[in-house]
Amino acid sequence: MHRDDTNPPDRVNVKHYLESCLPCYARGLSNGERMPKRYDIVVAGAGISGLSLAALLALEGSHSVLLLEKGSVPGGRFKVEKRDGYLLDWGIHACLLGARGAIGEVLRRCASPVRISPVGMALYHDGALRAILGERLISIARQQALSSLDMARLGLAVFREWGESSYATSVAQWVETHRASAAVELLLKALCIGLLATDQFDRASIGELFSFLRQTARHGSAVGYPQGGWGPVLDTLLETVQGSPKCESRFDFGLECVIAPRKRVRAVVVNGEEIECRAVVCAFPPQMLAERVTVDPPLPAEYGRCLASLEESAGLCIEMGLNRPVTPDTRVVFSVDPPALVWAVSNLSPRVAPPGKQLIQFFSPLGPDQQKDERFISDRLDSLVDLGAAVFGGPLDEDWRRHMVTTVGGVVPFTGQARPERPAVEVPGYSGLFLIGDGVCVAGLGGDLAVRSALVAESLVCEYVRQ
């Protein structure tokens, strides 16, 4: 028997975990304490992008920084929880591009001991598990998903189709136009599910997928996972921020208003209190700038409508604790039917599960209507558990299971809202107002995109404040 818990663990336990595992979190001030009235830079949002930018600014050390988080815990979608000896991600998160991606770069600049382990990829279809890519790019020669001819044709397309027109072309359109083989179509759909977090192939941008494959070729790795899970990553970033005399962080403080007379940032309103600043970085989904934060003077109506219309990516996530290990496989496995990815994350980082146990994670993308359909979600849950048993070669001896329908990305990479159409890091028409996260016009996907946007914003914000 297993315990099927749809609700997250008690928040008090989460806070106790954060205070014990993230020592710097325990040093944060409460809502009732007052803060100074002036900062050079306010970073609103302590998710992975906001924490990364605040840490980079702390290392730069020239400017006073206030990091705000409306919630009581840091991390945003990357927050960590502890349960029965397991360390659980909120959803499923990988380090795209591995140690050579943006997250690895920030950790190196913070002199962090956290290491990112490379992860291979495989495709499960018709009862067979086929290698796509090993831990290193050189292993592509041993892939089993495509014939040599198909591999050559796809590789040529990836490196020839660069332009904006590719971002406006869907995966389904590309397959039809190029008369792709069934094997190429299957692989592209699997990568679309696993990397773009959508199974809407008629809307998913082939340009986004090809761009990531080119990045993989340059960096030599596609996927990684941090040793010890995401807790040590958050710990590194928070310690860097709160170890700087120039930086302060506040939880339970939400950004309410940006005051920008003559469209030049002068102050923010936080929990009803006005705080002077020279620049504001909004480290949250761009839709929130249009819908939940007041900007004075207001954003142009058309720009606000564009932000509000961006669609988030969401899906069904399952975390499953097993009484005994069922597989030594360290790869992330993609499936098209059902649309999903699954991996034994504790094989990558043993510290996230108790000795003798195993932690399995599943993700399956959901459209807006599917997210509200309880019968559909129930059926998808059953199909994912069956998929896990098929992939790992036998029944899963469950101790407990948790599932959730949750947002996994600020902007799903559809045509019409792929990279060229997403908002820029600098908010147009305003001086000192910036956007970062996985929904802005920066190369990358998911968490790598979010952290890369922080790297881009670092130079832009520092240059603006110096001027």
Instruction: Work out the helicity level.
Output: 25-40%
Main beta sheet: 8 strands, mixed
User: Which geometry do the CA atoms define?
Assistant: globular
CATH homologous superfamily of the domain at 3-93 and 231-310 and 413-466 - what is it?
FAD/NAD(P)-binding domain
Q: Rg, please?
A: 22 Å
Strand line-up in the sheet with most strands: 1-20-16-19-18-17-8-9
What is the second-level CATH architecture of the domain at 3-93 and 231-310 and 413-466?
3-Layer(bba) Sandwich
Low-confidence stretches: 1-32
Tell me, what is the CATH class of the domain at 3-93 and 231-310 and 413-466? Alpha Beta
The chain-level structural class is alpha/beta
Mean pLDDT: 91
What's the total count of β strands?
A: 21
What is the count of helical runs? 16
SSE layout and pairings?
Layout lengths: L2 E3 L5 H11 L1 H4 L11 E7 L3 H13 L4 E5 L10 E4 L2 E4 L5 E2 L5 H8 L6 E4 L1 E5 L2 E6 L14 H13 L3 H4 L3 H7 L4 H15 L9 H14 L3 E4 L4 H12 L4 E5 L3 E5 L7 E4 L2 E10 L3 H6 L2 E3 L4 H9 L3 E10 L9 E4 L4 E5 H4 L9 E9 L1 H4 L2 H19 L5 E12 L23 E3 L10 H21 L1
Parallel strand pairs: 1-20, 2-3, 2-14, 3-11, 8-17, 12-15, 14-21
Antiparallel strand pairs: 4-5, 6-10, 7-10, 8-9, 12-13, 13-14, 16-19, 16-20, 17-18, 18-19
